[in-house]
Amino acid sequence: MRFDAIRDAIGHTPLVRLRMPDTPAVEVYAKLELQNLYGMKDRVARAMIIEARRLGVLADGDPVVESSSGTMALGVALVGRSLGHPVHIVTDPRIDRVTLAKLRALGCEVHVVSAMTSHGWQSARIERLQELLAGLPGAFWPQQYTNPDNPGAYRWLADEVLADLGPFDVLVGSVGSGGSLCGSSRALRRRLPELWVVGVDCVGSMLFGQPDQPGRLQSGLGNSLLPANLDRRLIDEVHWLNDHEAFVATRELAREQQIFAGNTSGSVYRVLCDVARRTPPGGRVVGIFPDRGDRYADTVYDDDYWAATGLTALPLAAEPAVVEPDTVVTSWSRAALAPPADRRHLLFVESNTTGTGMLALRRAADLGFRPVLLTADPTRYAGLAQTGAEVLVCDTASVPALRAFVHARYRREELAGVTSTSDFFVPAVAELTGWLGLPGNPVDAVLTCRDKGRLRVALDAAGVRQPRYAIIEEGPAATLAARVAAAVEQAGLPCVVKPVDDSGSNGVRLCATVAEALAQAERVLAVRHNVRGLPTARRVLVEAYLDGPEVSVELFGTGETQHCLGITDKRVDPPPYFVERQHVFPAGLPPEAAAEVTDLVRRALTAVGMSVGATHTEVRLTPAGPALVEINPRPAGGMIPELIRAATGVELLDAQLRAATGLPVTLTPTSKGYAGIRFLTADRAGTLAGVDGVEEASRCAGVRGVTVTAGPGTPVRPPENAYDRVGHLIAVGDDAAQVLAVLAEAGDLLTVRVDVS
Questions:
Q1: Cα distance between residue 464 and residue 477, in whole Å
Q2: What is the rounded CA–CA span in Å between residue 314 and residue 218?
Q3: Residue 507, C-beta contacts closer than 8 angstroms, at least 6 positions apart
Q4: What is the pLDDT of residues 631-640, one digit of tens each?
């Protein structure tokens, strides 16, 4: 294998089977993370520093500063120095001379604090680190204890174990920052949901309810502070070992298995032996061994050190005492853990401004979560105060800013999920869920759906039927006419001209001539920020006009399958605009046609990589067969979730929130009917004076409700996009014809009054 850089050698560590004569029927394996160049934290340093560079948080040549007395310091030195960054390490007198020599040899500046402060050595180091940050402009602090890129780095470790071994039953790992065990188990449980996770801590660490003893001798595990990356919901059982027990176990690991390791690996080995004895025959147990022994030559492996510290005066248990979680322990003990009872937060990165957006916030609370709306502008949301959601103002237009906000405010175990009902913020959600290890779709899949030009390319490669198209990139104004003419020639006339990244039919227009196409392209390219203030892609999609009825396919991905909730029949205003005027669910397609449409959409979702949660895909039924128009990587808007609920009893918003939080999803219909919606719009430009006939229309048999979403004085016009709607009415019935009749009857009673003076 050829490596392009020294950091490419990180990972790919051996998985070896240990000799366990007392439990021959149980397979016990050690993942030798100590075989990384400097240790397990090489993975973490690589993930954190490269991600900071990707996001622009760390610029070329800027310093990297970290607090560590062991392998994290070496990992930061390895990756930071290989990328040309000055590296400052803050440590304490416990650092061993080998690590200190390595850091200085790698070109790091090492700062050793001289005395403990309020929370021992760790708080002293953090205080010194803050002083350094203040004096080093542009410095990046990886923050291994709080940065979710720490546990995120271990998804690759999980992949390696599964590739080498396949399914197994128990994972054992040490707990310090919370990164390795939580990150590995979180990734593994997606494929091994019954995996039993055992954490290894030390006596005197406060991670699992024990009193803090800052003078403990073990390093590499335990903590005097509660790290934000620790997610105790992932850990089923915890063991505590005192310094004597850990050091003895480490020496026994070398003697019995010929693995010269540090005290963290020794502690894991001791617990592996106990777990193996309790595992049924045929079981498989894996332990993560993070540290090699060279750093511990003067401590763990030095008899004089044992004598000087009085180590042997501590108890030495042959097996763990079984205790309740809050019992104070002084020697090897274990306890089963129960997940914390606190309600977790479900974060919404913006949402639809009305309709399903506000419904989703209310439903989150009904499901037992604490809904939190992260928004740049709460005034956008009508009815927000009635949702019961906590509202936090932050910069939602920037992924780094969002990450920094969430990082500063929440511990990982406090978060249940991240979601949004808004097209514009689904990519930011994918960034956050990937970063936090929460359920969600890959960023690349979401970005492909959001960029209609990129989607066209992906569907072409997969052979999915779609319109002929051409993409116009931003370029010199002088050549735009020629580029538009070439695009129109490729797509044909009439053609649809639209931005690649807008929503709600905004900026979409049917053009009959090249001149019309040029004028629309100019309008699209002139828009630098969309309705939510986000920068636009400033790229234009020109595609052939597809003649035929429009439907949308409502699928729900469970990670394994794409479940079809139904197909929606859509009535769209006549060109040149494509504003949806009316929906009926389900559409009355013949079974063969419905199956063909659904298969088309499933193949498209596979092509782009969408697998979790609701998607809303628009399809035109052309004489040549169904052709895909666009994929929306989120639940349908236009109140379609309410139509699905009214017609089938399936709570689509509930299902979406459950998928976003890893809860089981129920998609089985409990009723069989039809539902429809008609949107209210103005027939002339002016200001809205009011909507008459609401009470009369509401009394019509079959009407579920009439809602006016715009107040008097709102500027209105004949609809050019979905934002021009002023309200809607919803009806139900036993069949589509009955629903259409109710919509017509009630719709005739409603008048949108416009003041044109």
A1: 33
A2: 13
A3: 498, 499, 520, 523, 524, 527, 721
A4: 999 988 888 9
